[in-house]
Q: What sequence folds into this?
């Protein structure tokens, strides 16, 4: 590892560290960065995002006792493909001292304590300012920098390390922000305003957001002027912040500023701000977004596409679904806005906009299969050629199932949609899956879209996960997502989510079979069931003694496996073989013979005793049916006659005298 001491290490670490002068020499001998720390750093610099330790701010990094300019020349690794982290280049390392996990090693090594503990070397002046004795004066001076990363870091620091709207929601608020906002330097609003006026590229809209946060109501006038800015992203920030502040005087200018805002993420944030305001005067500002199909995100069924979000916002304000055609939507609203009476306006919109959110009905048809679908025959039905284009050899895997979805135009107007959905999402109790479709090679063409007249259908082939097919039909959800409207081709295709149902023409065999395996001693080894030959539901596993040791849940809402303690009472011998209930197939007949013989025996003895009693003059009468009140030597208090004999009512205590095995079963 190559090291050199940080130029301002004394100011950053304080006199107590005592390592500034010999940091390089000691590091050459002792520095061993723990593998866990390096792995976290490599993950940080890669494009992958994963759950990690709590976020640490830049200011917190400067509190580590050792800060050096360093490079680690052993960072290459090969998990699947060669990865080379930025730690191979010179950077700022924030270190502490830690012992090895080997208890026998008493040496204190330099240690990378956090995934943010290695930073780019060009931030040296920034971290020096943060670590100075007066960072609140030193850091804002760096607003004069031309480096975009330095400017962004400074702007974040001015806001207490949490950037304001439109930043900080969703993933950023959970993993890329501290749990609590720090000190806010509102006095620096003027300096940030000056930064907005500079030519610093994409940093300008971030600076506009920070200025609005720092200035509050005092910044409304400047934000209104930004509604005419040449940068659409700066205009978008001005639109959203003024909408959040409910600035009614700027409604007209907000509508004009919306033209040309095409960034998907910013567009969705602005639309959300206007929808929360809920002023009908913002409808003209929402309509231009109906043709912006820039994809930003997807959270479940929520599509982060400005067109989709604008459609929902317009429905919230008017109660009607506008077409994805800005010119047509503006004309409809122009006519409706001219009607002052709200009741008559609603009636007009009911006539002009009778459509539902989704004009399509989707149903799965045919049989699940393991080969691509073929175009079906029949009138008014077309199979998209794009739907059957091969993508790669691995498109259809053995565990995947091909199926056909039929889409029908249920509206009273012609609807244009993509020949293929952009993606297909599946949900079932134990999982979910999303598959992107393979677009036709080359630039988009009109052949990638289809027009459906009212009542007309088209069919597309989709690939379904095998686990999805095994799940209970009532718990499965399938959706086709259309993200492209073809505006580059002059088209205004419908976009959104279509939920597919398993229709009456869908034919899927669901054959459930029980599976049972036993050890040579007869005890259970495995018990479970299969659906169409695939493991289904819960499977239990037992050792040779019949003790439950494991189970695996293949379907349901608790998919997984569990290990069991075989000595626990509820697991012990639950799979043990039960005792035989008979000696052979003739055992039932033998049992009947024994019972009949016993009946004859007791009947004969009872008759003999009754006769002897009469002869002795005791006067004891046996009641009708042969009952007597005494108990004989076998503990039987009821003597039977042939008239009493009813097999289901026969006393089981008598059976126990002759066949304990039968008794064990019956009791």
A:
């Amino acid at each position: 590892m190559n090291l050199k001491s940080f130029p301002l290490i004394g100011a950053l670490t304080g006199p107590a560290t005592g390592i500034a002068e010999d940091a390089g020499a000691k590091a050459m001998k002792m520095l061993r960065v723990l593998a866990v720390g390096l792995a976290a750093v490599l993950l940080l610099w890669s494009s992958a995002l994963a759950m990690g330790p709590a976020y640490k701010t830049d200011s917190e990094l400067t509190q580590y006792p050792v800060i050096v300019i360093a490079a680690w020349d052993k960072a290459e690794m090969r998990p699947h493909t060669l990865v080379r982290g930025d730690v191979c280049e010179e950077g700022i390392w924030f270190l502490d001292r830690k012992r090895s996990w080997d208890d026998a090693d008493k040496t204190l090594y330099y240690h990378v304590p956090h995934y943010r503990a290695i930073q780019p070397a060009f931030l040296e002046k920034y971290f020096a300012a943060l670590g100075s004795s007066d960072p609140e004066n030193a850091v804002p001076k760096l607003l004069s920098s031309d480096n975009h990363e330095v400017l962004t870091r400074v702007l974040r620091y001015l806001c207490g390390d949490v950037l304001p709207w439109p930043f900080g929601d969703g993933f950023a608020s959970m993993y890329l922000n501290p749990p609590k906002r720090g000190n806010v330097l509102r006095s620096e609003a003027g300096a940030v305003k000056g930064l907005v006026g500079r030519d610093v590229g994409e940093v300008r809209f971030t600076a506009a957001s920070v200025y609005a946060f720092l200035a509050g109501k005092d910044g409304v006038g400047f934000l209104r002027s930004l509604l005419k800015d040449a940068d659409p992203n700066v205009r978008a920030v001005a639109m959203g912040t003024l909408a959040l502040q409910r600035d009614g005087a700027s409604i007209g200018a907000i509508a004009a500023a919306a033209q040309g805002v095409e960034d998907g993420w910013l567009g969705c944030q602005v639309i959300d701000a206007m929808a929360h305001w809920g002023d009908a005067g913002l409808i003209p500002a929402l309509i231009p977004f109906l043709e912006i199909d820039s994809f930003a995100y997807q959270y479940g069924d929520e599509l982060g596409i400005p067109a989709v979000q604008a459609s929902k916002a317009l429905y919230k304000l008017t109660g009607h679904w506008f077409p994805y055609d800005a010119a047509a939507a503006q004309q409809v609203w122009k006519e409706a806005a001219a009607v002052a009476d709200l009741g008559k306006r609603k009636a007009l919109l009911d006539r002009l906009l009778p459509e539902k959110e989704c004009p399509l009905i989707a149903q799965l048809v045919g049989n699940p299969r393991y080969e691509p679908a073929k175009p079906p025959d029949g009138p008014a039905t077309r199979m998209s050629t794009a739907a059957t284009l091969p993508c790669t050899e691995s498109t259809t895997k053995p565990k995947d199932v091909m199926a056909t979805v039929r889409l029908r135009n249920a509206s009273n107007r012609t609807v244009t949609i993509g020949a293929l959905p952009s993606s297909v999402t599946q949900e079932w109790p134990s999982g979910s899956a999303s598959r992107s479709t393979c677009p036709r090679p080359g630039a988009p063409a009109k052949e990638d879209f289809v027009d459906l007249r009212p009542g007309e259908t088209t069919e597309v082939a989709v690939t379904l996960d095998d686990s999805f097919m095994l799940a209970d039909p009532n718990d499965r959800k399938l959706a086709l997502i259309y993200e492209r409207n073809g505006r580059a081709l002059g088209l205004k295709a419908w976009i959104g989510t279509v939920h597919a149902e398993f229709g009456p023409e869908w034919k899927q065999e669901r054959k459930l079979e029980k599976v049972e395996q036993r050890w040579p001693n007869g005890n259970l080894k495995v018990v479970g069931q299969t659906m169409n030959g695939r493991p289904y539901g819960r499977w239990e596993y037992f050792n040779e003694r019949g003790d439950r040791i494991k189970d695996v849940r293949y379907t349901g809402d608790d998919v997984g496996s569990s290990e069991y303690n075989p000595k626990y009472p509820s697991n012990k011998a639950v799979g043990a073989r039960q005792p035989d209930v008979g000696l052979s197939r003739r055992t039932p007949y033998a049992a009947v013979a024994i019972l009949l013989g016993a009946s004859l025996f007791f009947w004969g003895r009872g008759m003999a005793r009754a006769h002897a009693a009469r002869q002795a003059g005791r006067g004891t009468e046996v009641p009708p049916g042969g009952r007597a009140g005494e108990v004989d030597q076998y503990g039987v208090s009821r003597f039977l006659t042939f008239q009493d004999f009813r097999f289901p009512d026969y006393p089981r205590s008598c059976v126990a005298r002759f066949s304990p095995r039968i008794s064990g079963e019956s009791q």
